Amino acid sequence: MKIFIDTANLDKIREVNSWGILDGVTTNPSLVAKENTDFETLVGEICKIVSGPISAEVMSETATEMVEEARKLAAINKNVVIKVPMTEEGLKATKTLAEEGIPVNMTLVFSAAQALLACKAGARYISPFVGRFDDVGEDGLRLIAEIMDILDSYDFDTEVIVASIRHPIHVTQAARMGAHIATIPYDVLKKMFNHPLTDIGIKRFKDDWAKVPKK
Ligand code: G3P
User: Fold this and answer.
1) Tell me, what CATH number does 23's domain have?
2) For the stretch 195-210, what's the b/e string if a residue is b when 16 or more beta carbons lie within 10 angstroms of its beta carbon?
3) What is the domain range of residue 156?
């Protein structure tokens, strides 16, 4: 499973990149709004840190405007992936951008039917939001299972980015289903490290090592 970080914060991206496990970055308008930098500069800076796909979202509502916005963002760096919302106009824009060779991450996916349409339109990635789906009493991981079932049956060149992740179990369960990518917030990535038995084990080894006679 590829691991992306879901943030626009450069310090967090640098830190997680230094762990050696980072394959890409996803941003969204809310994450960008937390940083005090204009969008294009921020995307350019992220591309300097991470050499994998970097998702940047368009804000236009018509397909024509989305495509224009996407072309400008794609010109920042060859690794920029355009995040397009799952709307009728978004589907049209995805089709056009895919034909131009600009990769699209179709976002705000909440059903297997939406995922199927995004794949048909040529989306390179689709982002089902598991946490937000759970929040409204639905089952986000079941949605991932349904989408993976569909992808297993056909030959789409589309990868699933499990998004809106709230805890490590979202990641590990999605990995068991074969989801291609998890985009994980910084705090959840930190939680994936931690296990109390690891900490206890390190302390016990350290204490015992202190008793070993030294030359
Ligand atoms: O970036 C898309 C998605 O991961 C947003 O997550 O936490 O705002 O539901 P969240």
Assistant:
1) 3.20.20.70
2) eeeeeeeeeeeeeeee
3) 2-211
